[in-house]
Amino acid sequence: MEIKKVLVCVDLTPVSLKALEWAKMIAEKFSAELVVFHELEDVYTILKTSVSFGLPAMPDLKEKEEKKVIDNLKPLLKDIQTEYRFLIEAKGKTEDRLVEITEEEKQDITVIPTGYEKVITKINSQVLVIK
Prior knowledge:
Elements: E1 5-9, H1 14-29, E2 33-39, H2 41-53, H3 61-73, E3 84-89, H4 94-105, E4 109-113, E5 126-130
Parallel strand pairs: 1-2, 1-4, 2-3, 4-5
C-alpha cells in the first residue's frame, strides 16, 4: 500500500490532538504529506451572523483565530520528519467541511477523532478513527 497524503481533522480537543499524533506517525512512516485540517466554526458563525444583522465583524478576526490555532499546533509538529501544511478555514461546520475537504485533497488516509464517525461513509479514503 502506498500513502502519499494523510489528512487529519483537528478541533483542538484532547482526542483530536491524539489523532494528530497518529497522523504524524503514519505520514512519517510513509514519507507522506500531512495536511492538518481545522475548521473555525465559531468564526464562521460570527461572520455569518454579523452579515445577517448588517453589523461589522472584526476585520482580522479570522486571521487572529487562525494564528492561535497554528500557535497551538506548531509545537506538536516541531520534530516532524515529513512535509506538512495547515488547512484552516471558516466556511461552516467541521463535519460538513470535512467531507468537502476530503473530496478536494484526495488523500490516501483520513485520521479523525471520535465524534465525526457519521461522515465516514462520505469520505473517499481509508479512515482511521481515534478515541
